[in-house]
Automatic annotation (TrEMBL):
One of its GO terms (biological process) is lipid metabolic process. Residues 15-150 form the YutG/PgpA domain. Transmembrane segments: none annotated. The lineage of its organism: Bacteria, Bacillati, Bacillota, Bacilli, Bacillales. CDD domains: PgpA (cd06971). It holds the Pfam family PgpA. This is Phosphatidylglycerophosphatase A.
Length: 166
């Protein structure tokens, strides 16, 4: 399903490389030797998780249905306006962020506020496209892939039971 999901993302204008660039920018201050290839690998690993696949498919399908004006009222209007109080889009994306722990949640909050890279383009209302879910799902995917890298960093400090460095 990974390859198919990458096609779904590409159909909506998002590539794995776009997400990897965000991951790279998040982790580079903490891991100066990090390569973009490692970030691509991390994004693809997160995409391999079944729960992530289900969340992405659901959000992308809802965005596409909204663009075709196939959702029932009042949901159609909420999606067209990208109603700020809706919150379901962020809630769905948080399912992705939690795959690698709480650090993903803090990164998601940052990405949702700053909207770097592809997230900014997806959030651009002037295109006529509806990405109510996808902008947040991409942020969630980048946050999870970034958290995955942080958890695997061999320079991270391990602590013993008494709180001292192990």
């Amino acid at each position: 399903m990974n390859v198919e999901l990458e096609r779904w993302l590409e159909r909506r204008g998002v590539t794995v490389a776009d997400v990897a660039e965000i991951v790279h920018s998040l982790q580079l201050p903490y891991n100066p030797d990090l390569t973009i290839e490692e970030c691509v690998d991390s994004v693809r690993t997160v995409l391999g998780k079944r729960e992530v696949q289900y969340v992405l498919c659901t959000g992308i399908a809802l965005d596409e249905l909204a663009e075709k004006r196939l959702l029932p009222a009042p949901l159609q209007r909420i999606m067209e306006k990208d109603e700020s109080l809706y919150g379901v889009d962020e809630t769905l994306a948080m399912g992705i962020t939690h795959v690698y722990g709480m650090i993903g949640l803090t990164s998601f909050g940052y990405l949702d506020k700053v909207k770097p890279g592809i997230i900014s383009r997806l959030n651009d209302k002037s295109t006529g496209e509806i990405h109510v879910f996808l902008d947040d799902l991409v942020a969630g995917l980048a946050a999870a892939a970034s958290a995955r890298i942080a958890h695997q960093d061999p320079r991270a400090t391990d602590y013993s039971e008494d709180g001292t460095k192990a």
